[in-house]
Amino acid sequence: MKKLMHWLVPIILGVVIWMIPNPEGVTPQAWHLFAIFVATIAGFVTQPLPIGGVSIIVITVAALTDTLKIGDGLSGFANSSIWLIVAAFLFSRGFIKTGLGKRIAYNLIAAFGSSSLRLSYALALSDLILAPATPSNTARVGGVVMPITASLAKAFGSDPQESPRKIGAFLMQSIYQVNTITSAMFMTAMAGNTLVAALALQSFGITITWGDWAIAAIVPGILALIIMPYFIYKMYPPEITDAREAQAMIREELKSLGAMSVQEWIMLGVFILALALWATAQFTNLHATVVAFLGISILLGTGVLVWDDVKSEKGAWDTLVWMGTLMAFAGFLSKFGFIKWFTVLLGTYVPEGSWLLAFIVAVVANLYAHYVFASLTAHISAMFVAFSAIAISAGAPPMLTLLMIAFTSNLCMSLTHYAAGPAPVVFNTGYVTQNEWWKLGFIASVINLIIFVGIGSLWMKVIGMW
Q: What burial letters (b/e) apply to 263-287, b meaning 16+ CB within 10 Å?
């Protein structure tokens, strides 16, 4: 009966929405795609099948009902961000296979591992240092932070199937929520942030410089980075808290590893090369996925990875299927005009004469609208101008509005396991369940809203930005 309910919930939701006449301003095709999208998300929650299996079914339904052509339904698989995620999984395999990840993890534990909380702050600091020079937050997490975190968890004996709560689940959720914050802190910390600056100038005639963004975000960002790991630690505590005994043992293990092998040196060289190219992308114009593929090509060419390693990386291919499906559906919802209609609909509920209320509605709605998105850049493309216009037309200060909509266009990635490129990279390590992810993500979003919109707005007032 329980298994049947897992099927019935998404089916009934999808059919009911499908049968409701399409609202004025929404084409039947857009409305039907929305029905399938809602059923897809419901299927991801109830999981009558693994989410990859659900994805295959909904693509088939979309094609059979002529809601999308089969090529359109599969178009998300060509998205370069998804292939960056696949490459990130292979980077992680290289770290683990060569033993470099273990060596780095052991050194981190030896230096900072007296407690699990201190480890989480060390990883947060690493992300913060990389963020201003790494426009791809997927590359930052998938290629750098997550592989080290996975090695740390394994070094402490925390397995995603048998002992996730030992320390791995806490560390994985911590690095993800931290990445949500660092992505919002710098114009160059997430690829879509530069689109914000372009849209602000094009649509509102307002220039947002790198410095404007950084100085507005620095106080709420640092405050959020201090609070978030501690919140995760209290809300989702690891079983290991005092790690000093393990730390002493790890120091001995570190000595026994001996000198680095040739494969470790190659892996380290590829890692540094990728990091340098990701950091200088604004000068080289090399896409983050191209850089990742270059790294994987070197690892394959030198034998650090073999083709069997690529074929057996199940998490990467599972992610390709379900993330590609969401990318395609979300993209066509925008293309068919559904997102624009939904934004206009929200605007009709904003009372006239109160810019503060309009501002709050626009910022909050912008953040939580991300439940129907699988890409931050797509979210910004669809929502940024519309929600900014709602608040600014009501009299809200333009710079305050534009930056807060920009910040929440990053902070929204805390919500779901498909919200942005780094999400499936961390989720598919298997340490955090979907229900736990959504619960923690929602609470984290409220905390970030209070810090960035509440304290951040006051900070911007103090420094004269509005």
A: bbebbbebbeebbebbbebeeeeeb
